[in-house]
Amino acid sequence: MSPIGYAWLIKELSLRVRPLATPAEISTSVNRRVDTPHRVLFPRGVAIEDTLVGHLEFALRHEGVNLEIVDAVFEHLAPTDLSARLEVAPNGVHIRRACFLWEWLVGQELPIKVMPTGGYVDLFPPKTYVTAGASTNNRKYRVRNNALGTPDFCPVVLRSAIPEAPSLAELMAEAQRMLGEVTDPSLYERALSYLYLSETRSSFEIEREKPSSDKQERFVRLLRRASETSKLTEDWLVSLQNTVVRDVFSQEASYRTRQNWLEDATGRITFFTAPTEDLRRVMAGWETFINDNGRLCSDALVKAACAAFGFVYLHPFLDGNGRLHRFLIHHVLTHSGTLPGGTVVPVSAVILKHIPEYLKVLAGFSGPVTQLWEYIRGEVTPHITSSPGSRPYRFIDASREVAFLHRMIRLAVEEEIPRELAWLSGYDQAFERLDAEFDLPRDHLSALIRMAQSNQGRLSANRRKQYFYLPEVVLNRIEVVVQECFGAAEGAGPSAL
Hints:
The chain is an alpha+beta fold. It has helices spanning 6-13, 52-62, 67-73, 79-88, 93-106, 168-180, 185-206, 213-224, 234-244, 276-291, 300-314, 321-335, 347-352, 355-370, 391-394, 399-437, 442-454, 461-466, 472-485; strands at residues 2-3, 24-27, 34-35, 40-43, 121-122, 136-138, 143-145, 261-263, 269-272, 374-376, 383-386. Strand 3 and strand 4 (40-43) form a beta hairpin. The N and C termini lie far apart (62 Å).
């Protein structure tokens, strides 16, 4: 078998790009295109010009738009080769797209002699990709630029990554309905506080950190402010970073100015973050993306996933990126209009219960990108000999991330919110009944209810010893009431109270 299209370009030019999931190849065993789990097969007689431009046109036609590879090819492709091909086929769909991409990515004009006159064509086929909320027409090549971003940060998302149902709007409406059924104003506010604190603790626990009560409260306030600031800037992100990091020594005054990386327990490097020398360029593109009013990306789910995961992949700070990445999900949802300000969907609480799946999503990006770096391991820091530049960080395929976020939001709405509201209801019922029966200190009664509920309605022998001064009949009665009141809230946890 022989490579064709993107695979041929990677091999021919020795491009330093992430490997293709399904490279295209010529096969003598097929007489039509055949898509397999690991490659795409084309018959030997497939029409293609065996040149850089020919394989680029073939790839754009048959394999979609891989901006990382296209941008890398342009470092080796003479602009006159594109111009010459356009003169031969001025209305060719894919050469026009290639010429547009050259000027868009490289930032230089091509010396063309013939102007296309055909109808406008889409840069990204809308049936395959999630496209811009409002495309812009390029009159020179008659191409509709419907990319989700700019050359400085342009995620790509396959439409197949978004489940047809339930939609994000339907999920958010269901969350509002459930919260709206809490008719008691004081209980409603406690329910929101419960969800905010649950989300806060979960976000820190994902990082294996137990925050102080002061830090918890600051992060809760941060979540409640997710809808306040419509435009994210470096200064505002710095202020958020200062809020969520461990201590004053981890606080930063700007985006990082030195390279960082992540290691596992053995000291093996698992991820190199975006190169410092290109960080400001990529962050400027990211800021344009997240601050856009819907012209670039009008799909709230896609925007939340691309903005949040894009942020953690770029890693603009030395510490605090993970917590900010999860905060950004709430920021985008509230500013998209799908989630009213002042409410929260406990996404981090669900992610905490699906850590292996979460880490697999992160590794899907970090693993292939880190392999593009060349370095020598040192005793303390690696000596980097070569980096891939910002290209793989600017052009992320966020399809996996979008699908994951949809699943986490769905579980948060369909399982987590009902479970946490049921726990709150059960707690209130148990407290009211027991407080009327026994004259116990309120904090003791609260603790006993939580202890019993977390142990399947039973107080353990150790807990009974801890409260030795209470009569056996009181402890037994607490168990009975807890079992009765929490029957519909089984499995919920009291961690946020």
